[in-house]
Design a protein that fits this description.
The complex is a heterodimer.
Chain A lengths: L8 H5 L7 E2 L6 E5 L8 H13 L6 E5 L16 H28 L6 E4 L2 E4 L2 E6 H4 L33 H5 L15 E6 L7 E5 L1 H8 L4 E5 L2 E6 L2 H14 E4 L20 E6 L11 E8 L11 E7 L2 E6 L4 H12 L6 E5 L11 H14 L5 E4 L2 H7 L6 E9 L5 E10 L49 E8 L15 H19 L3 H7 L4 H13 L12 E9 L6 E10 L3 E11 L6 H21 L4 E2 L2 E2 L17 E6 L15 H16 L10 H9 L3
Parallel strand pairs in A: 2-3, 7-17, 15-16, 19-20, 23-26
Antiparallel strand pairs in A: 1-2, 4-5, 5-6, 7-10, 8-11, 9-10, 12-20, 13-18, 14-15, 14-17, 18-19, 21-22, 22-23, 24-25
Chain B lengths: L2 E7 L2 E7 L6 H8 L18 E4 L2 E4 L12 E3 L12 H8 L9 H14 L5 H7 L10 H19 L1
Parallel strand pairs in B: 1-5
Antiparallel strand pairs in B: 1-2, 3-4, 3-5
Helix pairs in contact in B: 2-5
The chains are: A alpha+beta, B alpha+beta.
Chain lengths: ~700, ~160
């Protein structure tokens, strides 16, 4: 049996087993997780872990998730950590429950616990039925006892559910058009509402032309105002929407400072004041070597561009506020709402309901704040707020623009011996925990602006995430320039700084390989010691039938990219193949990944492929556009994403890791994909473009410049 | 144009009151008829989440005035099949586990149904082109394309 580690993570904070597992009725099991479904299939994987450790058929298990009244507080569902931490906690809790029941059953049966096995919840003595099961024993086994951490989990060799492809629990409702999303939630007496967005922090309402807005609504509406927070409420959603559109022109605001649209360019970061620090090894003797290479890469601001705008419901009844949300963290949201509304946290319940695919800190928390503020103003009435598409694009926090300058000293063979990455970026972390609810800024006593900070390095870093290569060399360091003032609000998007950093590192490595006259795959293997890293690079090269001798500049290209996410999670290597003239057509992509224990292999492959397609979209098409009044790219025409006919065929293979620990899959492929495309474009064109996105305009400009 | 209109939804004759001539079909389906399977995506006719069939043709319902479908036949995702009797496209999506968040799938099912109705044996490229009006942000495209190919094959087999 595997030796269990001491209690870690959420199980240490919530050791009572009844917080995790319940037997509510004969034949039924409920497990609870603080992690939430955001389109990644996490609830299915949690169910698998519970079924495996309890030895109960998956069909008997219901998963309850993300509810401040019911589930453990597991912070945010983010950073590809749900399996690595949340899953491991739930798995250990289930193993402990199983051991408790086995011990009690053995006492009742007068046998040794080791002689008992469990089949679909029924206890067998040397294979024969005993009449005992979880449900019969649940009245005599106290689940209020605490997890000990010393109970062993099932050894991986005995898995029958974990590690096997499992159909997603949530998919049928979505395929048959059943109510599946928070947008579909209807409550008796529910009214629709829209906030009139404060254009900028500190802006004040000067004049409201209520009559004009009512005319535009063409239906009954009312106004709710609290400080500079203004909302429109009504029974007819169409009327409320129309009023919200009209309010953009019929509410006059004072104190709206224009922004400089030039700041949409990442290069503008270099002109901003910064907070600087250096992490990693001090410069070594090798840093001053005569042979060196230096290059600078950039990426603009990115939108989450979730397929639907954010939505929330809230009801304030008898002094208690209940909020339904698709935010990534119900407990942090409750904390932020309590601060903003002046309510005690125990007077607020926050419940997760599934929403459109979520890739980070989008408008979900903010729309929940809108609904909560309005609900408190209108006690007893359930309030539903759904942002407009344009509102989501214009007001969700975006992923910050980044500049990455790499300089490496080289040895006589052209291999890097000393590496410095200089990174400029706004923050990747402005989650609600830091007091950043949009509507709160419009309330009578807005919270102070939070001090600029990025994700701590212990949490994987924000702008510095994957900031240094995994490759072997004597010295590596990062000079991090945090840009505190950005023209628009920035926060966490899938992988944070990993995509631009891996793009920079892996393009740079290709440049070094070219300089050394070596094949990119061979060059990487020559400076890679980690066997799991070597394995994914070698596998993807085999999958793509990588040819070392393919000439550059012929209009067709292929490139490779590799990273270990956060330097401590999943390994992924990607090869991209494409055609490039003035535009780019992706033809094929391949990925080999080691995600440790893949709880649901098909689910992991789905996530890895999804990450590749989204990254391809970022790299080829996406950049938030600014104008003086804020974000200008407010619809799918001005913020295009990859469409069906532009998506290449993709093959993904998992390499069985040597570990029983799941490492998370959702964010592992973005960086390697971006780099593989960047390197393939350089291969196809015979010239390198270091600034993203790789749009037609940028390619034309590069070709015309004779680059 | 405000007032009561009659139309057929998923084979059933219904009479609904339209608040005014801006009221989109999507709002009537979701808020009056409780058919929430047709999802709101953008309200700008740009993403395809809200697609329905109107007399067999795929149409984005988020900005389509409800009055304009009076007397017409509307099919929504709920009208394609049920868990007990799934449409081949629904079964194929489930078999392929073709979805991540699944928000785009209603519109994609409708668009794919319209394609197979007019072209029972589309190529992969024809399917992709037909679905170019439907956005998917999670990156389930390839699974969806394979599922539509599979459903087409199943339908052709059933028709033999």
């Amino acid at each position: 049996m595997t030796t269990a580690p001491a209690l870690t993570g959420a199980l240490a904070a919530h050791p009572a087993l009844n917080q995790w597992v319940a037997f509510p009725a004969p034949g039924q099991v409920t497990v609870r997780t603080g992690k939430v479904e955001i389109g990644q299939g996490v609830l299915t994987a949690m169910l698998q872990l519970a079924a495996e450790e309890l030895d109960v058929a998956p069909a008997r298990i219901a998963v309850s998730s993300g509810d401040t009244d019911l589930t453990p507080n597991e912070g945010f569902t983010a950073g590809s950590q749900s399996m690595q931490f949340g899953g491991v906690a739930l798995r250990q809790a289930c193993a402990e429950v199983r051991a408790l029941f086995l011990r009690r059953a053995a006492e009742r049966l007068g046998c040794a616990a080791a002689d008992l096995t469990i089949a679909d919840g029924r206890f067998l003595l040397r294979g024969a039925p005993t009449g005992e099961d979880y449900w019969a024993l649940s009245s005599v086994v106290g689940l209020d006892s605490q997890a000990t951490g010393v109970v062993s989990r099932k050894p991986a060799a005995d898995y029958t559910v974990v590690g096997h492809d499992t159909a997603r629990l949530d998919l049928p409702a979505k395929v048959f058009g059943a109510p599946a999303f928070i947008h579909d939630l209807v409550m008796p007496g529910m009214r629709h509402a829209r906030a009139v967005r404060q254009p900028r922090r500190g802006a004040a309402i000067e004049k409201i032309d209520e009559a004009a807005i009512r005319r535009a609504a063409r239906g009954a509406i009312e106004f709710v105002r609290h400080g500079n927070f203004l909302a429109i409420v009504g029974d007819d959603e169409t009327a409320v929407d129309a009023a919200a559109v009209a309010a953009e022109t019929h509410v006059r605001w004072a104190g709206v400072e224009p922004i400089n649209p030039q700041q949409q360019q990442a290069s503008s970061l270099l002109q901003q004041p910064t907070l600087d620090r250096t992490i990693g090894a001090p410069p070594s003797d090798a840093s001053g070597r005569a042979a060196y290479h230096e290059a600078t890469y950039s990426r603009g601001y990115l939108a989450h561009a979730s397929i639907a705008p954010s939505c929330a419901l809230a009801e304030f009844r008898d002094g208690h506020l209940t909020v339904w949300t698709h935010a990534q963290g119900v407990f942090p949201l409750r904390e932020a709402l309590a601060q903003s509304l002046g309510l005690a946290p125990e007077k607020i319940s926050v419940r997760h309901v599934q929403g459109p695919g979520c890739y980070g800190h989008n408008g979900a928390d903010d729309v929940a704040a809108d609904a909560a503020i309005i609900a408190v103003q209108k006690p007893g009435t359930p309030i539903r707020v759904r942002w407009r598409r344009e509102e989501e694009f214009a007001f969700e926090p975006v992923s910050p623009a980044m500049m990455v300058k790499v300089r490496a000293a080289l040895d006589d063979a052209g291999r890097p011996v000393d590496w410095t990455a200089e990174i400029w970026s706004g923050t990747h972390s402005a989650r609600p925990g830091s007091g950043n609810l949009l509507a709160a800024q419009a309330l009578p006593n807005p919270p102070p602006d939070h001090p600029p900070a990025d994700v701590p390095d212990a949490g994987g870093g924000g702008a510095t995430r994957n900031g240094t290569p995994l490759y072997e060399m004597a010295g590596k360091r990062i000079i991090h320039h945090l840009v505190p003032e950005t023209p628009v609000r920035t926060s966490a998007l899938r992988g944070l700084g990993a995509m631009p950093n891996v793009f920079a590192i892996e393009c740079f490595i290709d440049e070094l390989a070219e300089r050394a006259g070596e094949d990119p795959v061979r060059y990487r293997l020559a400076i890679t010691a980690d066997p799991r890293a070597r394995a994914v690079i070698e596998r993807v090269a085999r999958m793509a039938a990588w040819q070392a001798s393919a000439p550059a500049g012929g209009g067709r290209g292929r490139g490779i990219g590799f990273a270990r996410y956060k330097d401590r999670a999943a390994y992924a290597a990607v090869v991209a193949e494409l055609e490039a003239d003035e535009a780019i057509r992706l033809t094929r992509m391949w990925c080999a990944a080691d995600v440790g224990l893949a709880v649901n292999p098909d689910g992991a492959i789905n996530q890895l492929e999804g990450g590749m397609i989204q990254a391809a979209s970022w790299v080829l098409k996406e950049q938030v556009r600014l104008e003086a009044s804020g974000i200008a790219s407010r619809d799918w025409e001005s913020y295009p994403i990859l469409r069906f006919s532009e998506v290449p065929e993709i093959a993904v293979e998992l390499i069985a890791g040597d570990s029983d620990v799941p490492l998370g899959a959702g964010e592992a492929t973005a960086g390697p994909t971006a780099a593989a495309i960047g390197n393939a474009v350089a291969h196809a064109l015979g010239t390198r473009i270091r600034d993203l996105p790789l749009t037609r305009e940028r390619i034309m400009a590069t070709l015309l410049a004779g680059g | 144009m405000a007032g009561p209109i009659e139309l057929t939804v998923n084979g059933r004759a219904v009479k609904v009151t339209v608040a005014n001539d801006d009221t989109p079909l999507l709002a009537v389906l979701r808020n009056e008829l409780g058919l929430v399977g047709t999802r709101f995506g953008c309200g700008l006719e740009q993403c395809g989440c809200c697609m329905v069939l109107i007399d067999g043709a795929p149409v984005k319902s988020c900005a389509k005035p409800a009055w304009s479908v009076a007397g017409k036949s509307v099919t929504t995702v709920e009208g394609l099949g049920t868990p007990e009797r799934p449409h081949p496209l629904q079964q194929a999506l489930l078999d392929a586990q073709a979805g991540q968040c699944g928000y785009c799938l209603s519109g994609i099912l409708i668009c794919a149904k319209a394609l197979l109705d007019r072209n029972p044996a589309p190529t992969r490229a024809e399917i992709a082109q037909a679905l170019d009006d439907n956005l998917c942000r999670c990156g389930s495209h390839n699974r969806i394309l394979r599922a539509v190919e599979k459903a087409a094959a199943v339908q052709r087999e059933a028709a033999r």
